């Protein structure tokens, strides 16, 4: 119902309009809040309606930072919650149009009653009727122009005089200098005769004559800004012709770009330089300048080597496909395949040389551990940025202890393939270079050039040198034992055996008639010795070789001992006879 003429019109209804009038929420709101806090309400009417996302909200008052007396879900929309920072726009709805219509009709009826029925009339639906020879107060025109109303065409001259009245089938027609420029039809359509152009659009706004709407072709609506074609709408969709399409950042539950019937599915800006796809209010995939992050698996057809499931715009036969496992194809041919236990490559793998701190092949969570190339024919293994193993065509150099993953669970080499091992340090008697996990002070170490020593419990025991295998300390070690005997000990001067009868055959007592060699002193190698001469040992006392010949080269210590034992036994027997 109109307020006029009982109440004077105020700016609550006919307020001063401001283009692109908007603000943003200062805090989240629920779907039932009736006071909405924003950053500012400057230029907003004291009474009106606002739009947040897809919800219209009527309000009856404002403060500097809030709308009060709000009616949620206004104009047939649904009341929903909204997040801090969401854009709040001032919008006009059907209620505003209807209010203005009621006021205009009320004003017209008031004028009709004031002017009288013989001069001008305004019908109950707003039609204006002017009799012939009536005059309108007009300004700004220098030539004849025309208006058309329901009763016919009204021809007005530059002075505003009605000069003709011709019936027509249209509601309203505009002509300038006799040329029709547009019309309102009875069905409510506004028709513009000129199609316009980017620099001179058919429909413009205010004094900005190169910004507005025009038609570039059949069934095409075009938008121009500052004389530049910016956007087109045709049967194929909406096309951005210049500039960018900008939208609010949005959120996972209210994406910046969504759909009329699915408002929580679409695209939104989740961080700086990051675009995220939301589905049903859940983030499913994000894109940034370095990678693509998916919350769910990508699903694609199996594909083939010639048509991979995941491929490239300019290389359709290169990519990934599935065939009893994941496979890679290049130029239509398989180059690699992966399954749950193995990775197979059909071609060599090439990588950058790398370094100890940044190896060519490393691990996601340990980037300074892996394998790299150092020089021709050399491959190195690094751990924590430090070289641990060098593999060359000639040898393998280890900088640390080599341990199997399971105790006592691995061999080094095999019966057919042995290792030649080098140690970087000589070691010592307390820490041998080659030792054992559970006995680290027992093993072998290098004492001097061409000399290896054995340590037992951190104490030197034996020496291996060019001169022989000898005890570490004189007169401290035995060779064999009573329960740990050698089968045989050989020397260049004869066989050294024990005196146990189990090691001898064809035992015959030696006769005391074999003479003993004479005792002599002699010099050799700068030293004075006491002994005997092999030459003096009787032939009958000398060892017999396997070929039956008498041994003439070996020392005859055993022979001499046997002869000596025979003579001692003979003397013992003779002494016993004498004692009787």
The span between the termini is 168 Å
Radius of gyration: 57 Å
- State the low-pLDDT regions, or none: 122-127, 132-170
Shape designation:
rod-shaped
Biggest sheet: strand arrangement = 13-12-11-14-15-16
Helix/strand-derived category reads: mainly beta
Mean pLDDT: 79
Largest sheet: 6 strands, antiparallel
Helix segment tally: 2
Helix content: under 10%
Structure explained in plain terms:
The protein is mainly β. Among the domains are: 1-126, no CATH class; 203-240, no CATH class; 257-294, no CATH class; 310-345, no CATH class; 434-471, no CATH class; 489-579, no CATH class. The protein is rod-shaped. It contains 2 helices and 45 strands. Strands 13-12-11-14-15-16 form a 6-stranded antiparallel sheet, with no helix packed on it. The longest helix is centred in the last third of the chain and has 23 residues, at 557-579. 8% of the residues lie in helices and 38% in strands.
